[in-house]
Design brief:
elongated; mainly alpha; Methane Monooxygenase Hydroxylase, Chain G, domain 1; 751 residues
């Protein structure tokens, strides 16, 4: 019960409910004010304007939010005008319907915020079919009032922003810490859950993508805010939490271990890994609790459990050495020590977040130069050239725009032929459900139909119990707000609530509620079927055919990241910023690759060409990024020896192999080679350095000098990690080259 009350509190304090309330106020206030003033006839148009322009109100830069809503207002007014003037002339209306659907849907090529503006425009087009205005005067009044409604909603959004200026960012930070905590716990399972490793790795791909999306939104919001006036103390604290959350995520990424090596070293002695696994789980749960405290007003949990778990992880190293005995225990002990060091760094970042949230003054000081911070922003390009580049059947968004246009026009013509009462309900269903991805469209169609049936059943039950119009009005309003607050979390439940809201809203127009329910269900099913069939048959965009460019970008960014790590090893202080930027770009590229693979899994089995090969390539790219991150993380947090000639030789070998993978996939046949003997010699020398240090240590132990000084330990750690990870990267890059060559061959055969 306590857990349910906590979840209810988090929901009531969430920005999801907050944004739904904004929409509710944007709708309710005009109705109420104009009703009491005696101008109620103008209320519907203003309300429609407010509703249509709400989608652009999403977290991020306030300036971009305002610009999006203003563009949305202009777009919805123009589209409504065109449709209303075209309605008396069927050929002209069909032409307008076709042109608007295609052109406006193509705006989505400019990114997520643009896609919401596009949705507002298309929604205005569909709703225009429900508006009955015939004369030019009536049409212009309707459009003008819709513009007023849009500006009214912008004012509501502005007021909410001023009243709670940090609420959106707090929610995003909370969501980020929650996802990061879950991710850390999931990665801990990979150490011992050998049979479920593939399943867990696929789950990590989903979480990686979600975390990267949160980080991108937070970067845009925080790093572009108040450039002239500076940041407030509270914003400094939020920025520090963001930086620590990014560091935690990158540390987790950097510890993508060679699990085959772990299995080989520890074999049946995996009980020595349990302390590390427990520590990761405790830290993950602690992050989840901190995420809740960003929303709740409660005390920060005691840190004793974290420190105790860290102490036990350290003790497990000693226990392992005492059980297995040196020198046989050295390799396993170094693995455990590297794992301990990484977890200690994670704990340091968690403690920074704790101190910031506890208002420790020294913890909330952060310095980030503007010219440096701008390099971490992924800026959306809004030039006409972006649209021109996507004007091709090779573009996923172009194909989606054509597909959506055909589906919308077909549905409207179907409505005319069969004299369907509310054709625009079918159009609305298609618009809301249809996505570029077949899998997502199918999933949303299923949720929409089930949600509509549930909502209709609930509405029937309420109608049978009462015929009170006041009850209908209250339920319509409450269900509307709840629907918009849950639409991202639970689309099926949101669809049920939307259905309830619409049914009771239409009950004011048509007293026969059962007739409204009947038409709503039938039109939703028709729209969902058209959306799914169109996605499958009309210019289908299967993810297997769209994967090439995403793969090329991942290979390119991994190579850049590898070379940035080489520069960091040579001069850590000079190349820290360029390394961090390259790391961020590599992580984003891998996140996009993971997202693409997730979409592939949602396509029909018959369309998942070379699924296992693609999964192998995705996994190899992911593992390479993490292996590079592991080296970079060690260099950043330890005093290292100068980069050796052998290290540079192996970097060149791995870089060239990655380039060969890129070239083979991109139909370029220029192959750069590094002499095989040179590479093998470099590998032997790196291994020799580690063996030399091990032999010296063995000799000291034989002479009774069992104490291990910090410098020797760090030298052993560095030699062991660099040797193993470079050999691992060579193996990964070679496997990746073979896999990409096989993948390229399969593409050619299918063409």
């Amino acid at each position: 019960m306590k857990e349910k009350l906590k979840q209810l509190e988090l929901f009531l304090k969430s920005t999801r409910l907050d944004r739904a309330i904004r929409i509710g106020i944007g709708i309710a206030v005009p109705f109420a004010v104009l009703y009491f003033l005696g101008y109620f006839k103008y209320a519907p148009a203003i309300v429609v304007g407010a509703f249509l322009n709400a989608p652009g109100d999403i977290p991020g830069s306030f300036k971009r939010k305002v610009n999006a809503i203003l563009i949305s207002i202009g777009l919805t007014m123009v589209i409504t005008t065109i449709i209303l003037f075209s309605k008396p002339f069927l050929p002209l209306l069909l032409l307008a319907l076709t042109a608007i659907t295609f052109i406006v849907s193509l705006i989505s090529v400019y990114g997520f915020r643009a896609s919401l503006v596009s949705f507002s425009g298309l929604l205005a087009m569909v709703i225009s079919f429900a508006i009955q205005k015939e004369t030019a005067h009536e049409i212009f009044v309707q459009v003008a009032l819709m513009g007023v409604g849009g500006l009214w909603y912008l004012l509501v959004s502005f007021i909410f922003q001023k009243l709670t200026p940090v609420k959106d960012q707090n929610q995003l930070l909370s969501d980020t810490l929650l996802l990061t905590g879950e991710y850390l716990k999931l990665r801990a399972k990979l150490l011992t859950k050998k049979t479920k490793r593939d399943e867990h790795l696929k789950q990590t791909c989903v979480l990686q993508n979600q975390i990267n999306e949160k980080h991108e939104t937070l970067r845009e919001s925080m790093l572009t805010a108040r450039k002239r006036s500076g940041r407030s103390h509270y914003e400094e604290k939020q920025l520090l939490i963001l930086l620590s959350s990014i560091n935690i995520f990158e540390l987790i990424e950097a510890k993508h271990l060679d699990y085959k090596m772990i299995d080989a070293i520890f074999g049946k002695r995996k009980e020595f890994l349990k302390a590390s696994i427990t520590l990761s789980k405790i830290m993950g749960n602690h992050l989840i609790r901190l995420s809740e405290l960003l929303i709740q007003n409660d005390n920060i949990p005691n840190k004793d459990s974290l420190l105790d778990a860290l102490s036990k992880a350290n003790e497990s190293i000693t226990n392992y050495i005492e059980t297995v005995k040196l020198p046989e225990a050295r390799e396993g002990a170094l693995v455990l020590k590297n794992l301990y060091d990484y977890q200690e760094q994670l704990l340091q970042e968690i403690r920074i977040i704790r101190r910031v949230m506890a208002n420790v003054k020294e913890a909330s000081k952060v310095s980030l130069k503007r010219q440096d911070s701008s390099q971490f922003l992924t800026l959306q390009e809004y030039r006409l050239n972006v649209l021109v580049q996507n004007f091709s059947l090779d573009s996923t968004m172009f194909r989606h725009s054509l597909r959506l246009t055909i589906a919308i026009v077909f549905a409207y013509v179907l409505g005319i032929v069969f004299e369907i009462q509310n054709t625009y309900w079918i159009l609305l269903t298609i618009l809301v459900i249809m996505r570029p991805s077949y899998g997502l469209t199918k999933e949303r169609s299923k949720d929409r139909i089930i949600g509509t049936l549930i909502g209709a059943a609930v509405a029937v039950g309420i109608v049978l119990l009462t015929h009170n119009q006041v009850v209908y009005a209250v339920l319509a309003f409450v269900s509307f707000i709840l629907a918009f607050s849950l639409i991202q979390q639970n689309y099926r439940f949101a669809a049920a609530l939307v259905t309830i809201s619409i049914i009771f809203l239409y009950s004011f127009i048509n007293p026969n509620a059962f007739e409204v329910i009947q038409y709503r269900v039938i039109d939703t099913i028709i729209g969902a079927i058209i959306a799914v069939v169109a996605n499958y048959l009309v210019l289908p965009s299967w993810e297997a055919n769209n994967l090439k460019q995403v793969l090329l970008n991942a290979l390119k960014m991994n190579k850049i990241y590898l070379l940035a790590t080489q520069e960091l090893y040579q001069n850590p202080s000079k190349h820290k910023l360029s390394y961090s930027v390259a790391r961020k770009e590599a992580f984003l590229a891998i996140s996009n690759l993971n997202a693409s693979f997730q979409r592939l899994t949602q396509d029909p089995k018959s369309k998942q060409k070379e699924f296992q090969l693609i999964y192998e390539i995705v996994t190899l790219n992911q593992t390479m990024t993490s292996a590079i991150a592991s080296i970079g993380n060690f260099i950043s947090n330890h005093k290292t020896t100068p980069a050796s000639i052998e290290f540079n030789v192996l970097i060149k070998k791995i870089s060239n192999t990655l380039q060969m993978s890129f070239d083979s996939l991109d139909d370029i046949h220029i192959k750069k080679k590094v002499d095989k003997e040179t590479v093998e010699d470099a590998q032997e020398k790196l291994l020799g350095k580690y063996q030399q240090l091990s032999n010296i240590r063995d000799e000291n132990i034989r002479q009774g000098n069992t104490a291990l000084d910090t410098d020797t330990l760090h030298s052993l750690q560095e030699a062991y990690l660099i040797t193993n990870h470079m050999n691992w990267l060579i193996s990964l890059s070679e496997n990746l080259k073979k896999a990409t060559e096989r993948y390229h061959s399969s593409i050619i055969e299918d063409q």
